[in-house]
Amino acid sequence: MKARERWTRDSRGWKQVRACCAESLAFARRTGANHPEGFALAGLANVARRRGDLASAEAFGREELLVWRRLGSPSHIAGGLEGLALTAAATAGEGARAARAVRAARAERAVRAVRAARLLGAAAALRERVGV
């Protein structure tokens, strides 16, 4: 098994990364360090998404986006939108499994896939506008 595959499957490794990001977030908030707060939230969203906790991934991603908006950082906003798009796409994949059993899930999956595409489009447009 390749090292990357072991890391992906190693829940203990992700627990350590999550703990580090949570500690960084607490420190950033305690000291008023806005950029580190955004990066810590991005890390927490990424870990949650990779572990399959899509509700937490979306919540952290939304918080991250609020930080970048507050700071007025277009390139970070674009990155946050891309992260939310990845979460929306993963959520759409969950809907795909349910769609086999329940027709109503197909409509939900389509809505989520459209949302993912819109978020990616917004990120791309913002990056183009600011030249990033």
Secondary-structure topology with pairs:
Elements: H1 3-9, H2 11-31, H3 34-51, H4 54-71, H5 74-99, H6 103-130
Helix pairs in contact: 2-3, 3-4, 3-5, 4-5, 5-6
Total tally of structural domains:
1
Second rung of CATH, namely the architecture? Alpha Horseshoe
Element order: H for helix, E for strand: HHHHHH
Q: Uncertain spans, ≥5 residues at pLDDT below 50?
A: 98-102
**Which structural class do the helices and strands define?**
mainly alpha
Terminal CA distance: 37 Å
User: How many distinct beta strands?
Assistant: 0
| Binned strand content | under 5%
Sheet of most strands: none
What's the CATH first level?
Mainly Alpha
Mean pLDDT reading? 82
Q: What's the CATH topology label?
A: Serine Threonine Protein Phosphatase 5, Tetratricopeptide repeat
**By CATH's scheme, which homologous superfamily applies?**
Tetratricopeptide repeat domain
Rg value = 16 Å
Number of H- or I-type helical stretches: 6
> Roughly how much helix do the residues carry, as a percent range?
over 70%
Overall outline: flat
In short:
The protein has 132 residues and is an all-alpha fold. Helices cover 89% and strands 0% of the residues.
Overall description:
This protein has helices at residues 3-9, 11-31, 34-51, 54-71, 74-99, 103-130. The protein is mostly helical and 132 residues long. It has one domain (3-130): Serine Threonine Protein Phosphatase 5, Tetratricopeptide repeat. Helix 4 (54-71) runs antiparallel to helix 5 (74-99).
